[in-house]
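Slide 14.
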Amino acid sequence: MTLQQELHNLKDVEFLENENLTSYTTFKLNSVGDLLKVKTVEALQEVLPLLTSHQRSYLVVGWGANQILPAQCQDIIIHLEFSFDMEYFNTLRSEYVLPASLGLNHLTSHAVKFGLKGWEVFTGIPASLGGAIYMNAGTNLGEIGNLIKKVQLLTPAGIIREEVMTKESFSYRKNHFVKPGEVIIGAVISHLGTDEAIPQKIREYLEYRKKTQPLTTKNCGCVFKNPLKELPAGKLIDLLQLKGVGVNQLRISTKHGNFMENAGKANWDEFQSLVNLINFEMDHFYGIEFELEVKIPYH
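Slide 15: predicted structure.
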């Protein structure tokens, strides 16, 4: 039996070959590849060993807010669709056990309802919990890693393991515990108590993001990591007067220099060309080469 036949036969798994993947990232670059929609942890426990035994590489895509997919994906794309009873959020808890596929927007709504301190740090980030943990997502208000107590992961062999967080578990936009081939399946997240000022703080920060970032366009969030805290990438790009500069249907946002906007049907090659252009100008004028914050397969 071929790998394709075996995947089609799995329960709680939908396997789509040569699927249009454009809608699976917020950037919406044209992309095609094989897609696995996995609805349960048990199904994923069958999928990963199967892919591993057939030496097929895979990539988990959550909301795709900080990921770039090539025109033709070599990896099998895995999209987690675990079920979750939203009534769980009707109760205030000291810690929350949540699936990786749950969107941060649901956590933010809960934070507004109960005034959870600390949860304002991921305000407005369009990501799943698993994706946010993987890259230690954050804003000017802080990072999600400081709130995570435990993470459940699935190994390529289909074995569940638990990682207890320490001070060394995260750094800027990076985790230090997910091993090659492992998939985050869930986490325990805490908060810092309650504060009646939190709902207003979240609303004000959402307004700030709307004013300073192109939230309504097709983009992948911040493209580059900040070289230093006092040297934001967007500010440096702004100083070079590169806002609005583009390659075909892709351009640097006029609202925020560290965002790229897809104005139509932009592709992988256009993204690489614009990244190269920015880094050439940065090296020429400042002697700096940006490190990508956005995740790219095969890099």
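Speaker note: The chain has three domains: 3-80, 86-198, 214-286.
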